């Protein structure tokens, strides 16, 4: 038992907890938000998956291990798209699990509108939304 007296949290419970902190979006909603300029889509899948399945046109590709550094509006390594803390970011991973943890991490940086795509890239693909090979 750890000194704090808390039992470890399993990943399923952790996902459930972090997802209560924001409203996740479905594929068509994410597509519409990106189309109207209301959201920045950020693809955190690794290169092998992008090469295998293609990419979402207009999505910013930032690998997961660089995400916080690239999207922190106050960071020295930020991408030009990281314009401020009010930016609505939709994080996309392959199936919608890693993206939830990533969105929660962005919330800790003050990016309070960060969310993720339910079902990830695979849900986008299944919905028949645009993909560039």
Structure commentary:
With 133 residues, this protein is α/β, with parallel strands linked by helices. Helices cover 36% and strands 9% of the residues. It has helices at residues 11-19, 27-35, 47-53, 67-71, 98-108, 120-126, and strands at residues 40-43, 60-61, 89-92, 115-116. The protein has a 4-stranded parallel β-sheet. α3 (47-53) links the parallel β1 and β2. It is globular. It starts with 10 loop residues before the first helix and ends in a 7-residue tail after the last helix. The mean pLDDT is 95.
Task: Please mark out the parts with pLDDT under 50 across 5 or more consecutive residues, or reply none.
Answer: none
Distance between the termini: 50 Å
Strand order of the largest sheet: 2-1-3-4
Describe the oligomeric state of these chains in a short phrase: single chain
